[in-house]
Write a structure and sequence with these properties.
mainly beta; Immunoglobulin-like; five-stranded antiparallel sheet; globular
């Protein structure tokens, strides 16, 4: 059986970095005290067909010590480059700091997705997020 690689790239956006993608394994996000904020979006996008791919699974591996995390499947609109703005399903990560907390916290989220179009097996991608609660 020949494996065909679908030309998809993983897109991870931090709430404060919507102008570009943050593909690195770790990054920091400024969070307003007491507010729920989107800190990451993880989606697969096919550059050949200008469509979203399968929805990745998200798992909180290391929870923050001073707040709550929600990992939700939601619709997102992104700038698809040559395809313009497109809408599709993504895995969004929200953080709500504990009441009265200000300072730095961290968390780690793992995302799993099927990288190959015609072969079983999941690829895992981990993101460490530093949360700067102000």
């Amino acid at each position: 059986m020949t494996m065909q690689f679908t030309q998809r790239f993983v897109l991870l956006l931090a709430a404060t970095l919507f102008a570009g993608s943050a593909i690195a394994g770790s990054y920091a996000v400024r969070v307003p005290a007491g507010k729920r904020i989107l800190v990451a979006t993880f989606a697969l996008y096919d550059t050949d067909t200008c469509t979203f791919g399968a929805i990745p699974e998200g798992k909180l591996v290391t929870p923050p010590q001073h707040g709550r995390v929600e990992i939700l499947q939601e619709r997102r609109v992104i700038d698809g480059g040559q395809c313009g703005r497109i809408e599709g399903w993504a895995r969004n990560v929200y953080f709500t700091p504990s009441r009265g907390f200000r300072g730095t916290d961290t968390m780690r989220v793992d995302f799993q997705y099927n990288k190959w179009s015609d072969a079983p097996g999941l690829t895992s991608d981990s993101r460490s997020i530093t949360l700067q609660v102000q």
